[in-house]
């Protein structure tokens, strides 16, 4: 036997054994049971059922889902129990991720599903959830009791079932304990193994939710958040039946004062649940997104292409701009249609959603959302700018420090190398098609959360300057223009002493290729930090007009 072929065959067999096969195909008889567990951001703290109507993609989730079974025990001292199986519904007027998870999964499968949920805010994996020595509120034995009793009731009713997945979101409290924090990975590994043993399901899949870096803790407790993330990834990187679920890009509650919070709130919970659903559906090989192919390449080879790179955080991503509201705006219906004359590619949420090559410019956000790129592209077209291509790179859970070449102690959050690679790849792809490409500029919308946290607000201009300087070196374009848009910064006595607008203005004045755009006349924001649908449309128009004005000077 050929030794090379033999070695390859052995490698192929070993590799195949390491890769978990897709879960069960549909049988429409066996009940698929999912477990949801964790602390406050699994409970649904600081969310409100009545707020669901504010977020059009999730309309209707305030009503019970009669086709989904639900068993739960929530809370610490005062526990709320379902006392058996009920229809899936909100509990205590809060919105948990199970609501959107169930609807998304149910729309993709005909099989019946059920959810068992045990969660309590402020609980530790190292203590409360410790399988061997549970302390505090003794969540592990409680969860075992709830799950086993719920399954026993199904047995009594002669309902066939199987445990299909375990959704876990926890870790914020462990980062405050100097023993639990460095041992999170070790404790999580033991936690997963013990569940598989106690439930007699050695192949039980776990979906481990990332802690939200968009919250205040993502800034002032960055090293501690990173320690928990490293612990989680240490487990999911080695356990083929455990998956790390990004959640930093989802919405978070807007608090009083500076606006920062540490809970997802209503919108975040609804998106949080969809993240778990998409991950689960991938494991059973069910595609959840519709393809958006660019059927005909819109440029002639002889024509040079103008590449516009859009980048930034939550408002460049379009966190609270929904396509369902876009159609109600004057001229909005035109933006809902894909524009095949503008090639568009994107990397959203730090890689959560990535385009499949170049697509037609159109709504492509992760949750029926869109960003300023739609009105930006249309404004350019309406003013006769031709051969336009747009590449967009965003992460709404990032801060400006994550975009700097140096980054921070949380190395996994460093975006600069990925951003640089994204631009280079976009240029190369267009050039490989035979085009001369002009990188018109990078259009960056300043980080919104940074403006609400003093130390970040103080350093924002310097961080941005470092990113701009290095990008010109790495892209070999010493005169690369940066169009930096800035919405009115957070107005609060705790940060107002830091004049970040003047800092940006002075930085731009010292750099002839840094154009500072004051986006101060957008529609009034409903909440601090976040721009909603109408404002995002106006932001795109504003950036485009400012570019056109700058181009007219040269």
Describe what you observe in this structure.
Helices cover 36% and strands 17% of the residues. Strands 1, 2, 3, 4, 5, 6, 7 and 8 form an 8-stranded mixed β-sheet that branches. The protein is an alpha/beta fold. The chain is globular and about 75 Å long. Helix 5 (184-198) crosses helix 7 (222-236) and helix 12 (373-382) crosses helix 17 (533-553). The protein folds into 2 domains: 26-283, 3-Layer(aba) Sandwich (Rossmann fold); 305-553, Rossmann fold.
Overview features:
554 residues; alpha/beta; Rossmann fold; 8-stranded mixed sheet; 17 helices; globular
- Give the tally of structural domains: 2
Helical segment count:
17
Beginning-to-end CA distance, first to last residue: 70 Å
Mean pLDDT: 94
Q: Please give the radius of gyration in angstroms.
A: 25 Å
Oligomerization: single chain
Indicate the overall shape: globular
Fraction in helix: 25-40%
| Main CATH class of the largest domain | Alpha Beta
| Main beta sheet | 8 strands, mixed
CATH superfamily of the largest domain: SGNH hydrolase
Uncertain runs are 1-21
CATH architecture of the largest domain: 3-Layer(aba) Sandwich
* Count of distinct strands: 16
**Secondary-structure content class:** alpha/beta
Proportion of beta-strand residues: 15-25%
């Amino acid at each position: 036997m050929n030794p090379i072929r033999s070695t390859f065959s052995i490698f192929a067999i070993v590799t195949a054994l390491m890769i978990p096969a897709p879960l069960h195909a549909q049988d429409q008889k066996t009940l698929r049971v999912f477990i949801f567990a964790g602390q406050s951001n699994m409970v649904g703290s600081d969310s409100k059922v009545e707020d669901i109507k504010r977020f059009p993609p999730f309309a209707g989730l305030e009503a019970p889902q009669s086709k989904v079974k639900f068993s739960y025990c929530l809370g610490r001292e005062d526990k709320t129990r379902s006392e058996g199986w009920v229809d899936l519904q909100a509990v205590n007027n809060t919105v948990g991720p199970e609501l959107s998870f169930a609807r998304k999964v149910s729309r993709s499968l005909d099989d019946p599903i059920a959810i068992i949920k045990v969660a309590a805010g402020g609980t530790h994996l190292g203590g409360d959830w410790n399988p061997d020595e549970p302390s505090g509120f003794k969540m592990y034995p409680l969860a075992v009791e709830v799950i086993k009793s719920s399954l026993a009731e199904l047995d009594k009713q002669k309902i066939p079932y199987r445990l299909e997945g375990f959704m876990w979101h926890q870790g914020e409290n462990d980062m405050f304990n100097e023993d639990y924090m460095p041992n999170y990975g070790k404790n999580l590994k033991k936690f997963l193994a013990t569940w598989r043993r106690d439930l007699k399901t050695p192949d039980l899949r776990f979906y481990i939710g990332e802690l939200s870096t968009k919250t205040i803790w993502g800034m002032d407790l960055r090293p501690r958040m990173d320690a928990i993330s490293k612990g989680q990834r240490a487990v999911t990187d080695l356990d083929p039946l455990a998956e790390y679920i990004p959640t930093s890009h989802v919405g978070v509650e807007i608090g009083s004062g500076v606006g920062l919070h540490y809970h997802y709130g209503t919108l975040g919970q609804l998106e949080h649940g969809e993240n778990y659903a998409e991950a689960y559906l991938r494991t059973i090989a069910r595609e959840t997104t519709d393809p958006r192919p660019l059927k005909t390449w819109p440029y002639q080879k002889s024509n040079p292409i103008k590449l516009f790179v859009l980048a930034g955080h939550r408002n460049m991503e379009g966190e609270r701009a929904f396509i369902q509201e876009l159609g109600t705006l004057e001229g909005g219906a035109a933006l809902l249609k894909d524009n095949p004359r503008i090639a568009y590619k994107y990397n959203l949420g730090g890689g959560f959603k990535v385009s499949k090559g170049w697509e037609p410019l159109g709504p492509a956000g992760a949750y029926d959302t869109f960003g300023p790129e739609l009105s930006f592209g249309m404004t350019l077209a309406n003013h006769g700018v031709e051969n336009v291509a747009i590449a967009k790179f965003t992460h709404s859970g990032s801060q400006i420090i994550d975009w700097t070449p140096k980054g921070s102690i949380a190395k996994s959050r460093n975006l600069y190398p990925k951003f640089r690679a994204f631009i280079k790849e976009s240029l190369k792809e267009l050039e490989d098609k035979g085009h001369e490409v002009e990188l018109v500029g990078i259009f960056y919308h300043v980080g919104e959360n940074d403006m609400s946290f003093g130390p970040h607000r103080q350093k924002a201009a310097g961080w941005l300057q470092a990113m701009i300087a290095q990008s010109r070196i790495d892209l070999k374009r010493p005169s690369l223009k940066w169009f930096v848009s800035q919405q009115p910064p957070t107005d609060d006595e705790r940060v107002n002493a830091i004049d970040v607008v003047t800092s940006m203005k002075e930085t731009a004045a010292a750099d002839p290729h840094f154009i500072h755009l004051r986006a101060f006349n957008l529609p009034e924001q409903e909440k601090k930090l976040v721009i909603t649908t109408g404002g995002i449309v106006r932001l795109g128009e504003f950036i485009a007009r400012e570019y056109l004005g700058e181009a007219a000077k040269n």
